[in-house]
């Protein structure tokens, strides 16, 4: 099975942002050693507890400290930027790290309304223009604007030998169709969606139009997964992430991911208890054999070519251990 890693550079309550970023680099190095296919970093803005606001910067650092694993954004929030600048940034990365760069695209704001205004003007209007933004970006990456287009003589330098591989990320039929119509690989964020992902991916497969000769649809599903030597330990390890999500929903959690002990002591009201149950049901939690079986079922149900795993823990060691245990069960090393 092809497995990949999605990382948000979570900051634990006993760590600094600098430590979180270096832990991301270490995770990428471990992921490469274990045989994971990709290491993607998210883009979030002014969210306490997450250090990944500029994935393109971290990808350059991580690329210099790894050799093979593909690196990408999950996702670059395109409505905040001009497509030309995005093409320049990722062409630069693709020039530095040939054949290793992915460009994941999303349309979410990545932060509060105030942050959105600080990042860009007319964000909602640009969200509505997402189809044309995507098309312009693809033309820049392929250097194939029509001769009469205003950008026909504009080239996003440097021009790499192998262009970044574009992906579209989403959680809705709208994003799936946008990916299909533009011949893009598609990543469904199962870990942050309550929609019928199986139907959404089928819509993508049915509507897919190849962007270039020989291109075929690619489906990746991103899921929360927590693995430990025993089911009980995995449940404990996952609790820090879930309680932190509940804290953030109440405007708390500024200190970062709580320890397992702190998470166990957190008082939940009835509504939060129900939310916690739903979080667990939407995640894969267990010992190596349990997680293996659930990931295989997920891949089959979603017709996925690849599974991307998202794991937030208080302890960096627990997070790395989770990825190690999963890799030992599912990643073949020929």
What attributes characterize this protein structure?
8-stranded parallel β-barrel, 46% helix, TIM Barrel, 9 strands, alpha/beta, 334 residues, 13 helices
Question: Which regions contain 5 or more consecutive residues with pLDDT less than 50?
Answer: none
- Could you report the average pLDDT, rounded to the nearest whole number? 96
- The count of domains is 1
Which term fits the overall shape? Answer: globular
Pfam families: Bac_luciferase (PF00296)
Protein name: LLM class flavin-dependent oxidoreductase
GO molecular function, one term: oxidoreductase activity
Keywords: Oxidoreductase
Quick structural overview:
This protein is α/β, with parallel strands linked by helices and 334 residues long. It is built from 13 helices and nine strands.
Give your account of this protein's structure.
This protein has 334 residues and is α/β, with parallel strands linked by helices. It has one domain (3-227, 283-330): Luciferase-like domain (TIM Barrel). 46% of the residues lie in helices and 15% in strands. The chain is built from 13 helices and 9 strands. An 8-stranded parallel barrel has the order 1-2-3-4-5-6-7-9, surrounded by 8 helices. Strand 1, helix 1 and strand 2 form a beta-alpha-beta unit. Helix 2 (55-64) runs parallel beside helix 3, helix 7 packs parallel to helix 8 and helix 12 packs across helix 13. The longest helix has 19 residues, at 231-249. It is globular. GO terms for molecular function: oxidoreductase activity. It comes from Psychrobacillus mangrovi. To bacterial alkanal monooxygenase alpha and beta chains. Keywords: Oxidoreductase. InterPro entries: Bact_Lucif_Oxidored, CmoO-like, Luciferase-like_dom, Luciferase-like_sf.
């Amino acid at each position: 099975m092809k497995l990949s890693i999605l990382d948000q550079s979570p900051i634990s309550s006993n760590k600094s942002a600098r430590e979180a970023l270096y832990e991301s680099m270490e995770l990428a190095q471990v992921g490469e050693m274990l045989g994971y296919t990709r290491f993607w970093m998210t883009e979030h803005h002014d969210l306490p507890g997450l250090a990944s606001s500029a994935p393109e910067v971290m990808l350059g650092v991580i690329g210099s400290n790894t050799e093979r694993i593909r690196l990408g954004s999950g996702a670059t929030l395109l409505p905040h930027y001009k497509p030309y600048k995005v093409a320049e940034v990722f062409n630069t990365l693709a020039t530095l790290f040939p054949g290793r760069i992915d460009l994941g695209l999303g349309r979410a704001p990545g932060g509060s309304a105030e942050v959105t205004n600080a990042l860009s003007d007319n964000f909602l209007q640009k969200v509505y223009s997402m189809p044309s933004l995507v098309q312009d970006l693809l033309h820049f990456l392929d250097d194939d604007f029509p001769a009469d287009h205003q950008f026909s003589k504009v080239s996003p330098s440097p021009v790499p030998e192998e262009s970044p591989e574009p992906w579209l990320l989403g959680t809705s039929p709208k994003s799936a169709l946008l990916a299909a119509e533009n011949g893009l690989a598609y990543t469904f964020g199962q870990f942050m969606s309550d929609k019928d992902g199986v139907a959404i991916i089928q819509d993508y497969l049915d509507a897919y139009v190849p962007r270039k000769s020989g291109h075929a649809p690619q489906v990746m599903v991103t899921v929360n997964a927590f693995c430990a030597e025993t089911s009980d330990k995995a449940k404990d390890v996952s609790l820090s992430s879930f309680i932190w999500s509940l804290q953030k929903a109440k405007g708390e959690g500024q200190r970062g991911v709580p320890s397992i002990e702190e998470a166990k002591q957190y008082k939940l009201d009835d509504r939060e208890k129900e939310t916690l149950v739903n979080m667990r049901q939407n995640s894969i939690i267990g010992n190596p054999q349990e997680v293996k079986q659930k990931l295989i079922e997920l891949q089959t149900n979603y017709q996925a070519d690849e599974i991307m795993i998202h794991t937030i823990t208080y302890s960096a060691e627990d997070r790395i251990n989770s990825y190690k245990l999963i890799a030992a069960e599912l990643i073949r090393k020929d």
